Amino acid sequence: MSGLELSVAVIAAIVGYVVISALWPNKKSAQSSDSPSSTSSSESRQQWATPEPWHVTLGVRPNASTDEIKTAYRQLMAQYHPDKVAQLGPELQRVANQVSTQINAAYQEGCRARGM
Questions:
Q1: For position 10, which CATH number holds?
Q2: CA angle, corner 25, sides to 22 and 31, nearest 5?
């Protein structure tokens, strides 16, 4: 298997995971919007942007240090930054944008939790 084929296989697996995980919160938010206690649009956008706790998205412990948070953020952005898939087509670019949005939101939430 060539390096290009391996890269495409890895990206396809990531895309599949991201698409399925992105669809799950949408079903939840659609159901909760029918209830009288539905959240505001900005809260639902934030919930969609970070479907899991910030530390899970970044892959760190809940009590991680600021250095650990920064390192995890930088490593994830190096992997999922939209510029990394710019040559692979609009579908992968859209997924990369979604994932990087989730990573950014998790990083901001982690920074707020640490008072950074």
A1: 1.10.287.110
A2: 140
> pLDDT tens-digit profile of 92-104?
888 889 999 999 9
Give the number of other Cβ atoms within 10 Å of residue 19's Cβ: 13
| Structural domains counted in the chain | 1
Indicate the burial class of 84 (C-beta count within 10 angstroms; 0-12, 13-18, 19 or more): middle
Q: What distance in Å separates the CA atoms of residue 103 and residue 74, rounded to the nearest whole number?
A: 10
The gap from C-alpha 32 to its chain's centroid, in whole angstroms, comes to: 22
| 40-56 pLDDT, tens digit each | 444 444 444 446 889 99
Angstrom CA distances, 106 to 7, 86, 101, stand at 26, 23, 9
103 closest CA partner among 38, 52, 42, 35: 52
Residue-number span of the structural domain to which 49 is assigned: 3-114
